[in-house]
From TrEMBL:
GO molecular function terms attached to this record: structural constituent of cuticle
Organism the protein comes from: Tigriopus californicus (Marine copepod)
Name the record gives this protein: Cuticle protein
Keyword Signal tagged: yes
Classification via InterPro entries: Insect_cuticle, Insect_Cuticle_Struc_Prot
Length: 123
């Protein structure tokens, strides 16, 4: 009887020393607060060597977004798009073009010279 009691006491002591692992959220956790979106940005690329000229500007306050972007077209014109977006009217854009379209002169077609006929020699 004493042996059973001693084994039981040792088992209880061993189990009490190592409690099962548990996880709970840290006490410093706070629910994130989400407010209305608000931002403003602007960027441009203008490289005279390559002819690249494009950019964008946008501003948002809550559900209302407005902005514009522009790009040089291959025909030499500048295309500008001004837009607004809201929760009711959706996406509304106005597209304008600056400059006159110019096209390079086309040269008349000339077919390539035919390949020379193969020559065979015997040594």
């Amino acid at each position: 009887m004493k042996v059973i009691f001693a084994v039981l006491a040792l088992t209880v002591a061993a189990l009490a020393d190592n409690p099962p692992p548990s996880y709970q959220q840290p006490s410093t956790y706070q629910e994130p607060s989400y407010g209305p979106a608000q931002y403003n940005f602007d960027w441009n690329v203008k490289d005279d060597y390559s002819g690249n000229n494009y950019g964008q500007q946008e501003e948002r306050n809550g559900d209302k977004t407005s902005g514009s972007y522009y790009v040089n077209l291959p025909d030499g014109r500048l295309q500008k798009v001004t837009y607004t977006v809201d929760g009711y009217g959706g996406y509304q854009a106005e597209v304008t073009y600056e400059g006159e379209a110019t096209y390079a002169e086309t040269k008349p077609y000339q077919p390539a010279a035919p390949a020379p006929a193969p020559g065979y020699q015997s040594y």
